[in-house]
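Reviewer 2 asked us to include a model.

Predict the structure of this chain.
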Amino acid sequence: MEKTSGIGTLKGIGAKTEQLFHNLGVYTIGDILLHYPRDYEKLPPITPLSELPELVKETEITAAVAARIDKTPVVRAARSMQVTSLILQEQDVKADLVWFRMPYLKNTLKPGAWFVFLGKISRKGSQFHMEQPQVLLPEKYESMQECLWPCYPLTAGLGKNKLSQTIRKALEELDLSRDYLPEDIRMRRHLAEYNFALENIHFPESEEALEQARKRLIFDEFFQFILSAGIQKEQMEEVLNEFSFLPLELSESGTESEKQASESSVESQRLWADSVMEQLPYQLTEAQKRTLLEIRQDLRGRKVMQRLVQGDVGSGKTIIAFLAMLDAAQAGYQSALMAPTEVLAMQHYQTFTELCEQHGLRIPVILLTGSLTKKEKRHAYERMQLYANAMIIGTHALIQEQALYDNLALVITDEQHRFGVKQRETLFLKGSQPHVLVMSATPIPRTLAIILYGDLDISVIDEVPARRLPVKSCVVGKNSRNTSYDFLKKEIAMGHQAYVICPLVEESEGLEAENVTDYARILQEQLPSGIVVESLHGKMKSGRKNLIMEQFARNEIQVLVSTTVIEVGVNVPNATVMMIEDAQRFGLAQLHQLRGRVGRGEAQSYCIMINTTDSGKAKKRLEILNKSNDGFFIAGEDLKLRGPGDFFGIRQSGLLEFRLGDIYQNADLLKQASEEANLLLAEDRQLMQPGHERIREQIQGYLFRQAETVNL
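Predicted model (structure tokens):
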């Protein structure tokens, strides 16, 4: 059995269960091994029945209750199922236990025997209640208490027991003894073997074993990413610039020497982009001008451009992208801008269309996203073939097989951290070796950016336009929630709008955190009836998400309760409040991105971060955001604070395609992986030498998985 074998080939996985795994994004046996736990937990200590009043107050908790059976359980029929019930009593404490469809427990739970009952326990008055608790012998439970138990992302209909069983089966079926990583690298970097790492990431023998497993798998993620980027860089360095980024009227007339003279100086050409800049209602910052000049020099250089534009939230990257695409259009070429979400793609489309209309530019602007109807897509494809100088805006739909271009010379990916190396390469192959510009608003310390984007030249827009008022931020405790609601009412009464961010979509077992579904309902009850509250999250269909964002942009919705799905690029200038629940659960870079969704208009904007813990470490982290609006400073401070960290904690960045790795918390491993990858590439640029076959296979599998994420 191979990693590429379908998940349905494992024993015990029928068609219905296979579909449930597909809902989780698990299609192959390899996928299930990469479906890592989101957290781990230890079993609670054993609590005697008599001590329940002290342990359980009004809220439901998970507990392990030890008790002696006094009476045989009762089995009765109810609603076409058998229900087993048992009354436990010790002194004046009584608990009612219920199991559904488990009548055989009557033969297990014999009077006089002691058992431990593990599960959720609730209290109503003096009565305690447990549904479907696990039944364990005390000695068995005690032996399990030191173990770490994985908590996986689940889907409706697929429980944690079935998921764990499937992972165990996959580990048994596959031969993982052949490690692709050379032994000298493992020894030098003190890394565990691959089979040990996979076994212990899912079923850790101890905290130390889990830490070793995570270290190895995070190293692998970084190592494979940097290797694949390095191989692509090697290939790209051989690609020469075949496009003449001169205006058509200059490139079609004049002597060769005149053309060369024009090409040598941007100032000697009367570019449409220059006219647009002169007519803008604001001045570009010096950082924007410098970045645009670097892009133009690349476009007129000897080799194809491979450049990253890294700019803080609100630094003005979008206008730079438009001006670069305008140069392409004037030279008679197509350009494409790929955004990570349909909301952002639509926003760019509207912005670029308006800019063209305002400045009298007869340039076709084409939108291509997955939610377009077949007729709309067909029309977009036809226009892409018809107009040789079109600006094409879209999502992953831009790199689908049906999307064919005519004369594509410049491709731009917005929010680069949402796209991997393979996605970028796929869009590149849509043209005849076009120039590539990637943009990111995620501030990354330059030392780490050079590692992550080693295949790219880097431009940094390190200024924010002077016309923008800094967002005022504050960190408050959960007791200040009502005061925060009053502030929301005040801002909305002034005609403004607000975002409220929650870490979860819906209530989640084992996680005490606010969720979008319940919060939106509760908030609607708290606020006056004239204020419209709506929820938004990534599980919604694209059409529904787009509709909600359009309504929010038109102020038909005043408060948008959302997950971090809105962190990327959404532009609603009328929104002045960003309220973040359980702020300690987010990384600083992510919090800074969220804060950047407000402060985009002329009114003063505010960010309220609600810290729901008493942790001094969390308070210290959040105070960094309270003191600074500089994303690069924040990123640097995040890096200093990472420490060895608690590996059950939050991800700080969520960057790129990394499942476990975090560039801030794991910066040392990132640097080690970079050193080893670069040593290997210096020796064998394409990994073709004998002895590197397994590494090459691993990288091919990595790139294949990235390509698959594009097509899902």
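The chain is about 40% helix and 20% strand. The first helix runs from residue 15 to 23. We have added this to the supplementary material.
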